[in-house]
Specification:
The structure is a single chain. By secondary structure, the chain is mainly β. About 0% of the residues lie in helices and about 45% in strands. The chain contains no helices and 15 strands. The strands form five sheets. It has a four-stranded antiparallel beta sheet with strand order 4-3-11-12, with no helix packed on it.
Length: about 160
């Protein structure tokens, strides 16, 4: 049985961010194909962000190819980016991971986060996911979130 999603206020999420296990089932589809269904995900919670879900690579049934480039998170370290392919669709630079994260985020080493906007569909605990607003952040917005999620024009610098 999947634990229900309690109401969460994104303004109450911490900074620096917190890392926690996800008790609910997380699933995602690309190209009409289910590419992951797991109970082994992690999520990162940061003030004004929708949670970012990190999925175990061994449970992702998709073609992950290095996309080149990278970025640095002040909390997690250097990120690597991935193209994700399934069902005849390739979503370019649609995922990222931290191969060698900081000690605080060591449990997500190699786990993969996928932009919700690149997927056909994603669910957490059976609830539909929407992408975090804007084009930069990769959080997954679920109906239980309240407060202002950053990413829309005028909120990126918070």
């Amino acid at each position: 049985m999947t634990a229900p999603l309690p109401e969460e206020d994104v303004q109450s999420y911490p900074r620096p961010p917190a890392l926690e296990r996800v008790p609910q089932e997380v699933a995602a589809w690309l190209g009409g194909v289910e590419i992951v269904r797991t109970r082994a995900a992690w999520r990162v919670l940061e003030t004004h962000h929708a949670p970012t879900y990190y999925l175990p690579p061994a449970e992702i049934d998709a073609d992950l190819r290095p996309a080149g480039g990278g970025s640095v998170c002040e909390w997690k370290g250097r990120a690597a980016y991935w193209d994700v392919g399934a069902g005849g669709v390739v979503a370019g630079r649609a995922a990222w991971s931290y191969p060698k994260p900081t000690a605080r985020f060591a449990p997500i080493a190699g786990f993969v986060a996928i932009y919700a906007r690149a997927l056909d569909r994603a669910t957490v605990g059976g609830l539909e996911v929407s992408p975090q607003p804007g084009g930069f952040y990769g959080g997954w917005v679920t109906p239980n979130l309240v407060g202002t999620v950053k990413g829309a024009p005028g909120t990126e610098g918070w």
